[in-house]
Amino acid sequence: xxxxxxxxxxxxxxxxxxxxxxxxxxxxxxxxxxxxxxxxxxxxxxxxxxxxxxxxxxxxxxxxxxxxxxxxxxxxxxxxxxxxxxxxxxxxxxxxxxxxxxxxxxxxxxxxxxxxxxxxxxxxxxxxxxxxxxxxxxxxxxxxxxxxxxxxxxxxxxxxxxxxxxxxxxxxxxxxxxxxxxxxxxxxxxxxxxxxxxxxxxxxxxxxxxxxxxxxxxxxxxxxxxxxxxxxxxxxxxxxxxxxxxxxxxxxxxxxxxxxxxxxxxxxxxxxxxxxxxxxxxxxxxxxxxxxxxxxxxxxxxxxxxxxxxxxxxxxxxxxxxxxxxxxxxxxxxxxxxxxxxxxxxxxxxxxxxxxxxxxxxxxxxxxxxxxxxxxxxxxxxxxxxxxxxxxxxxxxxxxxxxxxxxxxxxxxxxxxxxxxxxxxxxxxxxxxxxxxxxxxxxxxxxxxxxxxxxxxxxxxxxxxxxxxxxxxxxxxxxxxxxxxxxxxxxxxxxxxxxxxxxxxxxxxxxxxxxxxxxxxxxxxxxxxxxxxxxxxxxxxxxxxxxxxxxxxxxxxxxxxxxxxxxxxxxxxxxx
Length: 576
Prior knowledge:
mainly alpha, 25 helices, 0% strand, globular
């Protein structure tokens, strides 16, 4: 109780006996208020934090250092590559090292160096190196979730020409693509087929390496994971730990074993291994991993919202940095729930701040009452003046604290409103375009089914000429125009004032005037996609069916007509 009593009561001179009982009771009340205010955070906090999670927190704090170490290695390799540009054989080997460094770090760069490997292999007229380049390209595409492209690349690889040291990697990539497609499809027909292919390729990868090697043991863990064989997976992992492993290798296999423990009904052991995997992902500057997301999900289920929010934020940042599309899709459901809980937490803090404000107001009232009592009882004594001055000084301090709390509350309200607005807009766009996607997909599937039936009938009756005319009657241009019209209709329904707001960025003479039967022009359609968050020109060119140079030309032409500076124009469009 003494620790919570206001300092001015301890410092003031001892008052006469007539007011001592009053002062004692008021001091007791003030001390009780202090204890109640301090008890809230203590009761809510949990002092038991798992040691592995603390190590993970430390690793996250040092993440920029680990990332910079990888960037430094890349800078050295790139400098050597530039210095030996004339030696194409050496350039191929250096580009291979750089591609491996980028493989789990950044998709764009890994993809670029995979293509460079292919060009160098062709200039060297080396079929073996060309197959190696294709293997690296398939690995890169798989990491980014581009499964079809990875399949297409793997199919053109000539195993007879592929060097033996890369054959295990070829089968491993094929196996992972199949198992991830099985997890993605979740179809009773295709999932067993993909899994069977995955097991076959995993066996092939293991047979390409000697028993007891890293690749061999890794494939044992992979098969144990798919067969829910905890004993076999744990045994292989124990043997694996005896080998000299990189942090990335530890992360991959700890994550696989964690899934086996989870499937076996041992979530605590699974969480420990997944945390080990997340720590090693961070130390190896791996951006494509899923371990940190799984640890975030574990913390969320166990009520550790601050950690869950911190981990899911870091996991999403890593996935965005790498451009791991499938990881972002996997994270979106749990991320939405954690964000919702975070909003509730902010609201709770706001309510807590309001409670503190009321408590401080009560304390201020008690202090004022104490000052009045002391003034009435001791107005003829000089000590009463000093005591009243001390009371007033404390009162001013409390008022200042109250103003600070009010300011904090206002800032929290503004942040909450902004979060709500962003969530509402994101949900609205998502719901509209999910419906748009499925509507168009269903329509095209129906058209393909009708075409298939017609062609099947014509071919069965050997009406080849009629079938040829049926194919020639398909008007791809009209289909694309209809697709654009549907997109324009959906977009204008989402942003009815887009055209007017867009025209406001131009002088009167340069504004776009639409015909009555047209919702968007090509220029407006490009910037409509940008408004939806699709800012990559290459992706826009694929959606609209134009070349990337055409998209750049349209964008440059529009920006040059606007009175807004070119570098700020797209930000203005995103703000519409």
